[in-house]
Amino acid sequence: RLSNQDFLALKTFGLVTVLLGMFLLVYGTAAFRAALFPLLFLFFAVPLPEKLLATAVSLLLRGSAEFVAILFRVSGTPFYRDGAAFALAGVNIEVASQCSGIRSSLALVITVLLAGYLMLRSGWNRLVLVLVAVPMAMFKNAVRIVVLTLLAIHVEPGWLTSSRLHQRGGILFYLLALLLLVPVLWVLRRLEAREFSSKTLRR
After folding, report:
1. How far, in Å, CA of 73 to CA of 143, rounded?
2. Which residues are CB-neighbours of 112 under 8 A, at least 6 positions away?
3. Among 22-26, 61-65, 97-101, 113-117, which stretch is predicted with the lowest mean pLDDT?
4. Is 21 strand, coil or helix?
């Protein structure tokens, strides 16, 4: 028996597949190949099945916890770590599933995938950009956790529970991750420009 999440994912996957089949039937293979990227982009409308969602959340949690430890060390904040739990001066935190940032991380990957398609020519460079976005999603989660924790320690404990930055600050750290990915995109574009110019000179 399928859960509601898996059943919805299966129905949506079937709907998108039917839409792609109808497009292929009506417009033909040439148009289908030309529109392949936006057509495949429709699969992002499919909800993640429960097992795949749990795996993605677990990966984000482990990566975010590692980055949290690194940022605490860089900031000079003493802490004791037990897995995903951190004990600090007057504050105990745990990187739980609510801290995974799965929605903003998925949005980041979608944005980067679209940017790579529009601004890069090489499929390998597009893949590199998407792969870099994964640890960047973990890093922005860690920045959010560390910032809120340090504010709770040094300013007011409410920053960690009831502040607007805690409840609605996801978009701010999402934009931070995008800004950090801009130099990566710039380097990849420069490499492609050099490769293109060298091929032109050879001809």
Report:
1. 13
2. 129, 130, 132, 133, 181
3. 97-101
4. helix
